[in-house]
């Protein structure tokens, strides 16, 4: 009577994520800041891969670029200056199934966070690390960073910085157990997308140095390369970054580079006459520390207490 239903099961509709599902707060970066384009690329990759927002985490340190997690509608951790990588490694240790995007600036990663950078590369935990390299400390308003070019006038070096800059790609390529190093430029969204997609697909720590424009403090550093594409060197290979040719046809300067050749990668990364973009190095067979550090992550509290008590019982008299 009254057509009483006895089947209470709900039909769960398949979920399809659109870009909006990854769009967090309105980005407060300056107009013309390169960070906007990188954020858009990451959101597109998440959408194209249909990553569950609740299984995705964005982790950062402190800096303009480190505001990244606020603009992703996923889990996020806006950490301490230089500490993005230990936080990301901790997350991967306990929740290896999560997809992790790390945003770190050249100050955050190569200065205060340099020790963590070295060890995270060696740990090779599966995550994408995006180094936003604008050659300056942006958030704190114009101090020399380890990647500032000699002669850069900043608040810490008003007459121009004088030390040779650190080369982030080359440095990373010299750390043991490195498994993925690529370089791209924020002003080519096609190449940024393809590079970060390759980084996301790699199993292990993918280090991507992104040359990033800061319209406020370093507006000139990449201007020449932006205006004259012959100052760039496009790395091509069947195992490399597969960018849509329509977006890279401006680059006449190209070279075939096998990303499994680490010595060639180091030689290319050290070139100063051109800016190499593409995949410098990849080795998918390097050990990943989360395979070891996540052991036991699925043990229940009861099981832990039981194991502890069993251990303590060994000392009972
Ligand atoms: C322990 C500590 N030291 C210094 C600072 C000040 N500080 C905040 S961000 C920053 C540098 C940011 O530069 P970068 O990492 O290159 O990022 P950008 O702002 O250029 O994106 C510094 C020195 C801090 N917040 N915490």
The poorly predicted ranges are: none
For the sheet with most strands, the description reads:
9 strands, mixed
CATH C-level class is Alpha Beta
Helix/strand structural class: alpha/beta
Give me the CATH architecture, please: 3-Layer(aba) Sandwich
Distance linking N and C termini: 69 Å
Give the CATH superfamily. Thiamin diphosphate (ThDP)-binding fold, Pyr/PP domains
- Give the strand line-up of the largest sheet: 2-1-3-4-8-7-11-9-10
Work out the helix count. 11
The ordered H/E elements are HEEHEHHEEEHEHEHEHEHEHH
Estimate the helix proportion, in percent.
Answer: 25-40%
Into which percentage range does the β-strand content fall? 15-25%
CATH topology type: Rossmann fold
The count of strands amounts to 11
Mean pLDDT: 96
Question: Which descriptor suits the 3D outline?
Answer: globular
* Cα-based radius of gyration, to the nearest Å: 22 Å
Q: Which ligands occur here?
A: thiamine diphosphate
* Tally of individual domains: 1
